[in-house]
Amino acid sequence: MLRVALSRLGTAVPSLIGVVVVTFLLTRVLPGDTATYFAGPVASAEAIAQIRAQLGLDQTLPVQFGRYVADLARGDLGTSLGTGQPVLHEIATRLPASAELTLSGLLLAALAAVPLGILAALRQGSWVDHLCRVVTTAGVSLPVFFTGLLAVYVFYFLLGWAPSPVGRLDAFATAPPAVTNFLLIDSLLAGDTETFLAALSQIALPALTLALFALAPLARITRASMLAALDSEFIRTARASGLNRRTIVLTYAFRNAMLPVVTTLGMVFSFLLGANVLVEKVFAWPGIGSYAVEALIASDFAPVQGFVLTMAVLYIALNLAIDLLYGLIDPRAKEG
Amino acid sequence: MPENPALALPRPSAAGNLLRHARYVLAGNPVTAFSFLLLLFLLGCALLGPSLVPHDPQASNALRALQAPSAQHLFGTDQLGRDILSRVVVATRLDLGIAFFSVALVFAVGGLAGVAAGFFGGWTDRIVGRLADTIMAFPLFVLAMGVVAALGNTVTNIVIATAVVNFPLYARIARGEALVRRNAGYVQAARLTGNGELRILLTTILPNILPIMAVQMSLTMGYAILNAAGLSFIGLGVRPPTPEWGIMVAEGASFIVSGEWWVALFPGLALMLAVFCFNLLGDGLRDIVDPQRRT
Known about the structure:
The complex is a heterodimer of chains A (about 325) and B (about 300). With about 325 residues, chain A is mainly alpha-helical. Chain A contains 14 helices and no strands. Chain B is built from 11 helices and no strands. Chain A: It comes from Muricoccus nepalensis.
């Protein structure tokens, strides 16, 4: 198992190199002269030249790339022009908020999509099947920021069930002592039900918005692969051997149908990380997405670069985890 | 199937066959027929919209700001008193235009690269494959944000960014299709009659792949519209006061919490309708062009 894990780790290395090269190249195609931009509009020619030397922009491209990689290795992602803070620090403090939101969305989506897809496959043409079709069609057609706004209008303005869509915790609640920096988990660890409920009510709408978006591909693939599995010969054999329906569906069909679902999970996560940016903007969520958006609007490039890099690394790490999970679900993949 | 009446008839031309098949599919699939009508409606809005709308989409009127939908302003007015119906209709051209040009761009670049990779194999294949893998290593919307940030905050760069993130999909599909055809009978026949490899690629392989790629264009149009609207929602590309759906939803976002729902709702619905239309159309087109992949 360890050897398999190591070889999977090996396959992630080219992706990682590609990501570092692309994020490096993205800065080099910046229109205009970076040094002039850093120096500000009133800088003299000497000042610009000095900044250029300071930033290493007078070096050749390979040398600059070497410096970039060396900086990355030291955990230096540059400094934000807007806040004057190191980018790594800002991203590290904001990442838990984004992670909590994205993972809650993914969890909700998986919890709803898998049973929905299975039921739709088991009862083709029933109301569950139609519901599945409606939800999957809506999920791929609705822009995620629009769903979020609709949710705010209905649940905050009309019904008053949700709190004002600003941030992770309302101003009157006190944040629990930081352990994991996931407010939901930290408040439970501290035994603070009031804060837990406050955090839950804040995260409910954005997480549901993300979940609806992620639900569609997951439910669709669950239904399709469940149908394929139920139609296969080993299920026919299992039926002929007189196994009960429950065993056939859950043990035989479900386990085999899970493989494409887990693969799709990786793709869904890619979409979620993108959608997360939009949802964070709608709900003023203090995560790395809204940080990157603010920086983008201000043409503050270092945070954007750090953000793109962080997201890509997270995504690669998740794909790696999925690869390993694959080995656990499918014994055949262990040898591969 | 007990009997096939087509066998008894003289063999019709390929184009006639496709047309008949399209009519057959449309008759049996009203949803696809509906999506064709929806497409015509959207195209009508895009082409004729600016000359049909009841009000000037840019004309502001502080006295009429934030009015709910009424007979005079069917979709209401926004915070500057501009008519939302007119703005939503006029925005169709820009939104569809961005999506169309980005899809056309990736169709040309990604499609050609993929065909070359599948047909030539070897290092061409490795370079294209590596490029596609690298793009796929990023969450796509995040990469699009990065590309726009790097190239500059303009509409053209939104088009380019949307094309870049779709590149792997097109390259892979074209590669797969070229791979199964590289040694097909008609390709060997073309080779035997003395055609060069590049000529075979362009005149024999490419036309055979076009229908499948065209389906892909329709399927990705929906995604391209969403992607571009998402980028302009976070403030990239299109600048106000230009009417564009994503930016109009963003402008309406601040009024949702105070109950002025119509500012964000109608551009959002337009966006949804357009994406919905292209998704349905893509599924329907696939049934017509590529019956084996019907789901």
